[in-house]
Protein: DnaJ-class molecular chaperone
Amino acid sequence: MRDPYDVLGISKTADEAEIKRAYRKLAKKLHPDANASDPKAQDRFAELNTAHEILSDKEKRGQYDRGEIDAEGKPRAPEFTGFGGGGPRRGPGGFSGFDGDTIFESFSFGPEGARRTSRGGGGGFEDIGDIFGFGRQRRSAGGGFAPQPGADMEITLPVSFEEATQGASKRVGLPNGKQIDIKIGPGTREGHRMRLKGQGEPSPMGGPAGDAYVTISYATHPLFERDGDDLRQAIDVPLADAVLGAKVRVPTLTGAVELAIPAWTSGGRTFRLRGKGLPNAAGGHGDLLARVNVVLPAEKSAELEELMRKLKGEAA
Structure:
């Protein structure tokens, strides 16, 4: 992955306001919905979100600037000249770490990052490729190097606006036929990417499986139109309520709310419901913009028609 500063197009001295402005500008330009015909749009948008997650967090930005984490936010392993006291961690039976036979049952992720719940044994192999710089080869407890792991795979997981806002559990089918459960944390944003270790393609040489990467994508909503982190919708208001004023029920991602429509509200007037939109980068939510659509009575009314003729005549 590219340098996060290059991804956002900013200098290393940029302040928080510059980072925020650069992200918002690029998010509108690179969003998959605005580049539906580009097969690489999702990857670029995911890269943008990863870069923003690192640079908008003071602690992560400091770790990156010091070389403690890489451009994907993963820890960089320290350099070793030999196994001595600074070598790989050892357990009672040899090198400890990831067991290629561990069964991963469920995964969860949200704004705070990814977590996993597993069942199975420890021991076996430890991934030392990052330390010695030769890829993802593994050193076994018996000495020597195990075969290269299988290929990684990329998966896009569509979620509804409600699921991203309130959290949900989703079952995902992998290309290898395995079904896994993923818990979506409340406030998960589009473009969030997580790693499922060992859930990729099997190794053709008998080594460990590759990894699967899951990227969150927002599904199209039947009621709401997305505008960045804000949502827009049209609400029907009867003519009498628009003239006299009333309270109308407005659906939101967390349940319907009442909106007070003042008397003499014209069609097209927009009301802002703060915090009722999609999760945003600041840890809050965007707004819901409700646009009034004045509707006539279902049945024709002679009295109403006569009143309209009178008003039209007075206006003339």
